[in-house]
Amino acid sequence: MSLLDLYTSCQLCPRNCKADRQHGQTGFCHMPADLKVARAALHMWEEPCISGKAGSGAVFFSGCSVGCVFCQNHAIAAGQSGKRISIERLADIFLELQIKGANNINLVTPEHYAPSIALALAMAKAMGLHLPIICNCSGYSSLTALRILSDHVDVWLPDFKYYSPELSRKYSHAPDYFTVACQALQFMYEQAGDPVFDDNGIIQKGIIVRHLTLPGCMEDSRKVIHYLHEIYGDKIYISIMNQFTPVSELLSDYPELNHTISASDYDALVDYAIDIGVENGFIQEGETAKESFIPPFDNEGV
């Protein structure tokens, strides 16, 4: 059985929809087995230890197995943007980003394409790819997909969106999000271990967990941060993000989310993290909640 056979009766994400993506069906992720990429370019807006001065070699894959109602990348998450490419072309894209000076290869929402990406990475490494590989994922990840990618991934960059099953059901149609994310993060830590940085402060190995604060959900955010620190301490980095950007056409049914995070709420959450002892972390300053921070998904580099 080849890796690509996993697209038949697909169970690469926790939805386990069993779509025959190999033969053109689409499941919850909206994607058949054919690779679809919306952008491949140097990305300057990640955490400092990822982007650095040169930028992260970000490859944005179309489709998503979470489907958050507030997604700021909804054009690609729903599969509306992107270009279909071969596995061989993806391997070339990785090498082209390396030539451009990228600090790393940053796989953005890759899980539903895990078999194809693993094959492309193997090809690219055989042709000289030597950059750290980052898996920039939702946290709502199956162990099947993570195991496929783990032979190639050096740095895990998962989201950890929710503690409450009520919130994860309401906003991501995933009442099991917390359980799945806990299992996924444990797997990532066992694979990557403690963080390692090069002489320029660029991460080479380890885990950075992102938590996006949502309007009106500060108590849930505190529970997420408390859990992460209680279980992993300073063995991981926690990135507390204030960049929630309302997307009006998606939020008509969720008026409580139709505004940004207040500075006072965000500052209080950061103070909470400091008070419980979080030392390895990242915070965002300034006006990050702007649509101008969302890259254009115009097939650049594809």
Automatic annotation (TrEMBL):
InterPro entries: Aldolase_TIM, MJ0674-like, Pyrv-formate_lyase-activ_prd, rSAM, rSAM_sf. The keyword Iron-sulfur applies. It comes from the Bacteria. SUPFAM superfamilies: Radical SAM enzymes. Keywords: Iron, Iron-sulfur, Metal-binding, S-adenosyl-L-methionine. Residues 60-171 form the Radical SAM core domain. Signal peptide: none annotated. It holds the Pfam family Radical_SAM. This is Radical SAM protein. It comes from Coprococcus intestinihominis.
